[in-house]
Structures are given as C-alpha cells and as structure tokens.
Amino acid sequence: MFQEPEDFILAAFAIVWTGVTFLLCKQFIGMDISGSLKVTIATGVLLAALFVAWQMGVWRKWFFPLIAGAFVACWYPLLDWIAIKKHLPQGVAANTPIIFNAPWYASWTFKLSLTAAVIVASGIWLWVKGKKQ
Q1: Coil vs helix vs strand at 126
Q2: Burial of 114 (0-12, 13-18, 19+ CB in 10 A)
Q3: What ranges do the domains of the chain cover?
Q4: 31: how many CB neighbours lie within 10 A of its CB?
Q5: What is the pLDDT of residues 96-120, one digit of tens each?
Q6: Residue 30 exposed, middle or buried by CB count within 10 Å (0-12, 13-18, 19+)
Q7: What is the pLDDT of residue 69?
Q8: Where are the alpha helices (DSSP H) in the chain?
Q9: Can you tell me whether residue 101 is helix, strand or coil?
C-alpha cells in the first residue's frame, strides 16, 4: 500500500488535516468535545475512504462534487451545536435533556439543501472547467 512517496505524503496530509479540524472545532470555534469529535471523526473517515479509493485506482474526476458534498456533511454537527448554544437556558446541567424546535439552519431540509447546492455548484464548476480545455 505504501509503495510510493506520494502515499506517505497523502497519508500525512490526511492526518494533519484531521488534527487541524479538531483544533479548529475545539479551540477556535469553541465547540464542545462531543461536537468536535463528531466533526473530526467524520472528516477522518472521509479522508481514509478517499485515500483507499486513490490507492485502489478508482479515483475519478467526477468524484469531486461528491467529495465536496461529503465535506459539507461532515460539518453538520456545527449547525446543531450553534442551535443548541443559542437555546441553552442558563444554569442547566450538561447532562439534562433539552427539547426545542430546531431553527431553520439546523433542520435536515437546510442541511441536505446545502449539501445538494455544493454538489451541483461543484459539478457545474467541473463542467465549465472541462469546456474551457
């Protein structure tokens, strides 16, 4: 599997990217550990799948829109965290269940629409780029 120098470079890049994702969530955005781990694990799994696809030689140009949409989906917990953070009553214990109506940006309709918009925009960009060549 790790026969060429590119293999090590891409694996190291994926590991660094995953670590930076965790730092971005936890330190810079201020997400709780649960949300940070959800985003980090989703990103790590996606990068591992992409690495294996590249190793197996099934990498295709048309993967790009799907990859972009998958990266958007990795950040769904951020939208949920923002919604919970704004609606969390003061003085509530961390383990207390909270029931509230999610705002529009934390709904599945918005999340799936956002992912679809990124996939379509990436596909259009790929198509336009292909037409120019």
Answers
A1: helix
A2: middle
A3: 5-132
A4: 22
A5: 777 778 888 889 999 999 999 999 9
A6: exposed
A7: 95
A8: 5-23, 33-56, 63-74, 76-87, 108-132
A9: coil
pLDDT digits (tens, 9 = 90+) for 13-68: 999 999 999 999 988 888 888 889 999 999 999 999 888 888 887 777 778 899 99
Dihedral (Cα; 115, 116, 121, 123), 10-degree rounding: 110
**Residue given tokens 């930076």 in the structure block:** 20
Q: Return the axis-axis angle of helices 63-74 and 108-132, rounded to nearest 10°.
A: 150
Distance CA 30, CA 59 (A): 35
* Cα distance between residue 125 and residue 121, in whole Å: 6
